[in-house]
Amino acid sequence: MRSAVRTLALTATALLGLSLLPVESATSVLPAGSHCVAYKSRKTQAMVAQSDIVGSNCGVTVKAVKAANGELAAEIIIPIYGFNSKEKDRDKEVAKLLSSGSHPNLTVRTETMTAAEWKALLQKGGGAVKAQLVIGGKSFTITANPKITRSGNKVEVSGVITSKFTAFGIKPPEVGPGGVIAKAPDYLELHYNFVSGKVQNLAVVPM
To answer: Which of 17, 171, 40 is nearest to 108 (CA)?
Structure first.
């Protein structure tokens, strides 16, 4: 049962890197053993030079939730102001794009499943999980296909999903009229890596 709980919370956490059209093929920017999420995009400057933009956030909260019917879900909270791209102005722009003024957190809640279903995900090393991702008060039905690894009693979930800003109702950022100074293409990678030791509220699940 304990393994099922770890799988529940960590697989759900992987939904932080969700996409409406998931393609998990990029190389992760997060190291193994971390408990963080990150975004990665590209920037075109002066309509010529391209460079990568990465913003990480290790202030994520993940907790197990027990529904009234006894099934299990996971809730993930991501503080928007926790993203750090090493450029304060960019971080402020990201916060604005994500409506942080009225909704300071991104929230993900998975669909409920039985403990046996979560355990099956662990045994297979991953699988599809559906959830609701809330950005700026708007909810998106999403699906993730995380990679789940186990070492002893420790479980780790990781992955990268390639998506688009517009898949979440976000206009790609621009600097200058028409993006003449700099702009981001409609391309977005969502990275995640989580470890079982930092999952909260496991007591709601019977052992």
So the answer is: 17
